[in-house]
Design goal:
This protein is of the alpha+beta class and 822 residues long. 44% of the residues lie in helices and 14% in strands. Strands 7-5-4-8-3-2-11-12 form an eight-stranded mixed sheet, with helices on both faces. Strands 16-15-17-14-13-20 form a six-stranded mixed sheet, covered by helices on one side. Strand 11 and strand 12 form a beta hairpin. Helix 2 crosses helix 4, helix 9 runs antiparallel to helix 10 and helix 19 runs antiparallel to helix 20. InterPro entries: HATPase_C_sf, Morc_S5, Znf_CW.
Length: 822
C-alpha cells in the first residue's frame, strides 16, 4: 500500500518512535511550552492559543497555536519533519530550540495528529503530520504530505501535479478540513504577510475518556484535568505561561484573553542579586572539548592521506594533490586553534547572577525558578531552610537564575538538566545564598511573624494568600513597582506609584503614550527597568587556632582508630620517645650531609615516621609512596651540627634510640618466624645488635632493606589475611546471632498473640458474667471494660459481694463441669 505514496516525503522514522518520543513529556504543559518556544524563536510578537470545538474529533475540540512570526518557506517547512536536525544550534542568535525535536514531541504528546499552515514571502505551505493516517494506511514509516501554494494567485507550487493531488486527497480524508476552500480559510486566519498556524487534533484522553486538557471549566484558561497541585503553574496554563520566560517580550493570549506575563525579577519585594563566580559547571564545556578533539583527529587523518597522495609517483595529479595537502594543513591548524580555545574556555570561571526576593502576594508560592537560555526548566524548587517543615525562615522567598546553555545544558524535553550532579550542586549553592539574602535584608534578624503580619498574614498556619482588605492590598502595591508592557514596542514601563492606578485599566491594551511619566511616554524612548541592589556572600574563614584545634581533633580520631584496630599492645617502657625529641632529631638529620666515615653509623629515617607512642608498628613499615632512607655520617660532623643547634643528645644516644625503635619493629613482625638465611643471623636480637657494631653503612642499609621488604611482602600480607579471616568470622557470627534473634522474636510475637487472645476471651466471659449477675453490661473496647470493672469494684455493692462469694464457692465445681462438658 505504501507504493502509491512513494513520491511523498518521509520523516525517516518508524511510527513507534513517534509515540515513544512524545512520552518524554511527563508534564503536559511542558509539551505545550515547546510549541510556544517555536513561536518565540520565530520572532513572534503575539501568540494566540485557543480551542475550536469539533465533536467529530477525539477529545471534542482542536487546539490551535497562531503566531505572527517569520513563517517558513516550502524548503524550511520540509526540514521540520526530520528529527534531530535544527539550524538554530549553529546560529549566533540565542534560540531556545536546539535539538529539532520540539514540534514533533510536543504536538504528539497532546494529540495524535497535527496540521500546520505557514506563510512566508510569496508562498503558503501546509504540513500534515498524522499518526492516524499512517496507522489506517498500514504504513510503518511516517509519510508527510507538504503541499504549497502561491500567496497571491493561490495556485499550487509543484513540478508533479499527481503528487500534489495525492497530498491533498490525504489531507481531505484524514484532517478536519475536507476541501481546498477550507484549507485556504486557515491561511486567511494568519492575519499578516507571514506567520504560522498549528492545529493539533485527536487529543489524548484520560482513562475516564475525558481529554487531558480541560477547556470547559474555565473559558479563559486551559487547565490540566484532575490536577491537585498546590501551585497554580502546575494546573493552569495561564499561570504557567506567565512565568515561562526570564525576559518576556512576546505577548501571549489564551482563549482570546491576554496573559499577564511577569518580569519575575521585578515582581518581588526587596529583590537583591548576587554574583556567583564558579568553575564547577563544566559538563557542556567538556563535551565541546571532546568534539574539538575528535575534529582534530579527523583532520589529522585527512592530512596523513593527503601526504601519502603527494608522495605517490603519479605526477599527473601532483599539483592538485599539493592543493589538497595545503588545505588539509590549514584545516588541522584551524582545528587545533579551536581546540585550544575550547580548552581555555573549560578553565575559565563563570559568573551566574542569582536573584532573590520575597513573594508577598502569595507566601506559599516560593522556591527556586531555574531558567536555561531564558526558558523555565524547574520551578518552586525548595532549598536550604525551605526544606524544613513549618520553618518561616525562607518562607515566601523566590530565587531566580538564568543559566546559559554553555554552562549547563537542559534535557530534550526542557524539564530537567542533563548533568544531575551539577544541578544538585547549584541548588545547594542557592540554599546558601538564600540564607545570606535573609541576613542582608534583615528578615532573619527580626520577628518573622510580625514581618508577615504587615502584609496580611495573620498567623503561621496561613501559608496561602494574605487578607483581601484594601489596607493590605495598598501595602503590597506600594512595596512592589507596577510594571507593564507596551503593546506596540513590547518594552516594559514602570508606572508612578499611585493608588489610583489599577492593573485592569491598562491590561487589555496599553501603549507607551498612556504613561503619565513624561520620560517614558513614547515608544522611541529606551526601556528603564528598576535597578536591583547587589549583595555579597560573606565567607568567614576559620581562625588559626580553630584550624589547629580541628587538626588536633582529627589526629586524635585517627590514632584512636589505629589503637582500636591494633591486635597487640606493645611494651611502652622500651618504645617511649617524646614527640618533641623526635622532631629535633629529624630536623637534625635533615641538615646532615652525606660524607663517608668509618665511625659510628647513624640511621636517618623519614620525617613522616609516626611517633612510637601513638602509632602501631604496622604503620612504620615502608609504604609504596615513601622510601625509608638510611644515611651514614661522620661523628665529627654530627658533633659540629649538634654544637651549632645546641642539642644535648649525643650521636650514640640517638643511634641507640633509633636502633631500639627498629628492634621493636623487627620483634613485632618476627616473633614467630626465623630470620631468612640471607640476613646471616638466627634471631632478631643478633641482627639488632649488629646495627651498632656495623662499621659499613652500605651493609647496614642492605640488611635493613631486606628486613623491610620481608615485612612488607610476606608478613604484612600474612597479617592482612589473618585480619580478614577474623573479620569474616565476626561477620558470620553476627549474621548467625541476627538469625537466632529473629526466630526468637517471632516466637515471642506468637506467644504475645496467644496471651492477648486469652485476655480478650477472658474479658468477653467477664462481661457475660456481669450481665448474668445483673451488674450491667459494659460495651465498647477493652479499656472501657477495664474502667467499668474498676469502678464497679470500688462501689460498696451488697449484690456484688454476694455474687462474688457465690462464684468463689462454686468456682471449684464450675470449672471441672465446664472442662467435662468440653
Amino acid at each position: 500500500m505504501g507504493d502509491k505514496y512513494a513520491s511523498l516525503r518521509r520523516a525517516q522514522l518508524h511510527l513507534d518512535f513517534i509515540h515513544a518520543n512524545s512520552t518524554t513529556h511527563s508534564f503536559i504543559f511542558g509539551a505545550l511550552a515547546e510549541l510556544l518556544d517555536n513561536a518565540r524563536d520565530a520572532g513572534a510578537a503575539r501568540l494566540d492559543v485557543f480551542s475550536v470545538d469539533n465533536e467529530k474529533l477525539q477529545g471534542g475540540f482542536m487546539l490551535c497555536f497562531l503566531d505572527d512570526g517569520c513563517g517558513m518557506s516550502p524548503e524550511e517547512a520540509s526540514d521540520i519533519i526530520y528529527f534531530g536536525t535544527s539550524k538554530k544550534r549553529s546560529s549566533t542568535l540565542k534560540f531556545i530550540g536546539q535539538y529539532g525535536n520540539g514540534l514533533k514531541s510536543g504536538s504528539m504528546r497532546i494529540g495524535k495528529d497535527f496540521i500546520l499552515f505557514t506563510k512566508k514571502e510569496e508562498t503558503m505551505t501546509c504540513v500534515f503530520f498524522s499518526q492516524t493516517f499512517c496507522e489506517r494506511e498500514g504504513l510503518t514509516e511516517v509519510v508527510v504530505p507538504i503541499p504549497s501554494w502561491l500567496t497571491r494567485t493561490r495556485k499550487s507550487v509543484t513540478d508533479d501535479p499527481q503528487k500534489f493531488s495525492t497530498e491533498l486527497s490525504i489531507i481531505f480524508k484524514y484532517s478536519p478540513f475536507r476541501n481546498e476552500a477550507e484549507l485556504m480559510q486557515q491561511f486567511d486566519v494568519i492575519y499578516g504577510k507571514c506567520g504560522t498556524l498549528l492545529v493539533v487534533y485527536n487529543l489524548k484522553l484520560l482513562l475516564s475518556g475525558e481529554p487531558e486538557l480541560d477547556v470547559k471549566t474555565d473559558k479563559e484558561d486551559i487547565l490540566m484535568a484532575g490536577a491537585l497541585e498546590d501551585f497554580p503553574e502546575r494546573w493552569s496554563f495561564r499561570a504557567y505561561t506567565s512565568v515561562l520566560y526570564f525576559e518576556p517580550w512576546m505577548r501571549i493570549f489564551i482563549q482570546a484573553k491576554r496573559v499577564k506575563t511577569k518580569h519575575l525579577c521585578y515582581c518581588l519585594y526587596r529583590p537583591r542579586k548576587y554574583l556567583y563566580v564558579t568553575s564547577s559547571f563544566k559538563g557542556a564545556f567538556k563535551n565541546e572539548v571532546k568534539k574539538a578533539e575528535e575534529a582534530v583527529k579527523i583532520a589529522e587523518l585527512v592530512l596523513k592521506e593527503a601526504q601519502v597522495t603527494v608522495n605517490r609517483p603519479d605526477k599527473t595529479s601532483l599539483s592538485s594533490a599539493k592543493d589538497v595537502l595545503q588545505k588539509a594543513l590549514e584545516d588541522v591548524e584551524a582545528k587545533h586553534k579551536i581546540l585550544k580555545e575550547k580548552q581555555r574556555e573549560l578553565k575559565k570561571a563563570r559568573t551566574l547572577c542569582l536573584i532573590f526576593g520575597v513573594n508577598i502576594e502569595s507566601r506559599s508560592q516560593a522556591g527556586m525558578f531555574i531558567y536555561s537560555n531564558n526558558r523555565l526548566i524547574k520551578m518552586h524548587e525548595k532549598v536550604g531552610p525551605q526544606l524544613k517543615l513549618k520553618s518561616l525562615l525562607g518562607a515566601g522567598v523566590v530565587g531566580i537564575v538564568n543559566i546559559p546553555l554553555e554552562i549547563m545544558e537542559p534535557s530534550h524535553n526542557k524539564q530537567e538538566f542533563l548533568n544531575v550532579q551539577e544541578y544538585n550542586h547549584l541548588l545547594r549553592v542557592m540554599g546558601q545564598y538564600l540564607v545570606q539574602y535573609c541576613k542582608d535584608t534583615g528578615i532573619s534578624n527580626r520577628n518573622l511573624t510580625l514581618f508577615w503580619n504587615e502584609f496580611g498574614y495573620q498567623n503561621d498556619k496561613d501559608m496561602e494568600k494574605s487578607l483581601d482588605s484594601v489596607q493590605y492590598q495598598r501595602r503590597q502595591a506600594m512595596a512592589i513597582p507596577f510594571i507593564i508592557q507596551c503593546d506596540l514596542c513590547l518594552k516594559w514601563r514602570i508606572l508612578p506609584s499611585s493608588i489610583t492606578y489599577q492593573e485592569k485599566e491598562f491590561f487589555d491594551l496599553w501603549i507607551c503614550a498612556n504613561n503619565p511619566n513624561p520620560l517614558e511616554n513614547s515608544c522611541h524612548q529606551a526601556e528603564r527597568l528598576p535597578s536591583i541592589p547587589l549583595g555579597t556572600m560573606s565567607s568567614v574563614s576559620p581562625s588559626k587556632t580553630e584550624k589547629e584545634k580541628q587538626l588536633r581533633e582529627a589526629i586524635q580520631r585517627y590514632h584512636s582508630r589505629l589503637a582500636d584496630s591494633q591486635p597487640q599492645v606493645l611494651d611502652k617502657s622500651d618504645t617511649e620517645v617524646s614527640l618533641k625529641q623526635e622532631k629535633k632529631e629529624v630536623s637534625l638529620m635533615k641538615k646532615e650531609k652525606q660524607e663517608p666515615c668509618s665511625d659510628t653509623p647513624e640511621i636517618k629515617r623519614n620525617s613522616s615516621l609516626p611517633n612510637r607512642e601513638s602509632a602501631p608498628m604496622e604503620d612504620l613499615s615502608p609504604s609504596p609512596g615513601h622510601n625509608t632512607s638510611f644515611t651514614v655520617s661522620g661523628c665529627c660532623h654530627i658533633a659540629a651540627l649538634l654544637k651549632e643547634s645546641s642539642q644535648s643528645t649525643s650521636v650514640k644516644e640517638t643511634v641507640r634510640k633509633l636502633a631500639s625503635n627498629l628492634r621493636e619493629i623487627l620483634q613485632y613482625f618476627f616473633p614467630q618466624y626465623q630470620l631468612p638465611s640471607e640476613f646471616g643471623y638466627t634471631s632478631v636480637e643478633e641482627l639488632a645488635a649488629s646495627f651498632e657494631l656495623e662499621q659499613c653503612p652500605e651493609q647496614t642499609n642492605k640488611k635493613l632493606r631486606m628486613c623491610f621488604n620481608q615485612i612488607q611482602n610476606v608478613y604484612m600480607a600474612q597479617y592482612e589475611r589473618e585480619l580478614k579471616r577474623k573479620m569474616q568470622s565476626i561477620i558470620y557470627d553476627a549474621n548467625r546471632r541476627g538469625a537466632v534473634n529473629e526466630i526468637s522474636l517471632g516466637q515471642c510475637e506468637e506467644k504475645r498473640k496467644i496471651t492477648e487472645d486469652k485476655l480478650n476471651n477472658l474479658r468477653v466471659k467477664l462481661a457475660a458474667l456481669l450481665q448474668k449477675l445483673q451488674l450491667g453490661s459494659p460495651a465498647g473496647d477493652q479499656e472501657q471494660i477495664d474502667r467499668y470493672l474498676e469502678a464497679l469494684l470500688k462501689e460498696d455493692n451488697p449484690l456484688l459481694r454476694n455474687a462474688l462469694n457465690k462464684v468463689t464457692t462454686d468456682v471449684g465445681h464450675g470449672l471441672p463441669l465446664e472442662k467435662n462438658g468440653k
